[in-house]
Design brief:
Layout: E1 15-19, H1 25-37, E2 53-57, H2 68-71, E3 73-77, E4 84-88, H3 89-95, H4 97-106, H5 113-119, E5 122-124, H6 142-145
Parallel strand pairs: 1-2, 2-5
Antiparallel strand pairs: 3-4
Helix pairs in contact: 1-4, 3-4
Amino acid sequence: MKTVIPKIDSIERKWYLIDAQDEVLGRLASQVAFLLRGKHKPEFTPHLDLGDHVVVINADKIKVTGRKPSQKIYKRYSGYPGGLRTKPMEKMMQERPGRVFFHAVKGMLPKNRLGRKMIKKLRVYAGSEHPHLAQKPEALPDMLRKI
């Protein structure tokens, strides 16, 4: 029996619309990373990008458990001495709530050029409005709702 590797041209990509209202950050982020990688498809191959596009709305209404809002710190470094910038999760959720979800999903994808390609298929919006109505996004698949 031979292993069948799908061709890049034959990949069918769907669009999923996910409402993040009252969802727990990490649990929803793992489901989104699952969709972006394409692990829900029977032809999944680890070295190919077979994932689908995901549109997440209401990222500003996502829930975080425990004391993470006050204790979790987001860091970025400019590369210069004294260039480390930190921001607590509370402040990040007020200023850019979609960025918190984006970071959570990005941390669950591969750390290579394939992961950078996958994260480009994620669109996160703080409110319920989004410009991707022309793609006719679908709701989350049933198999992922149970996770």
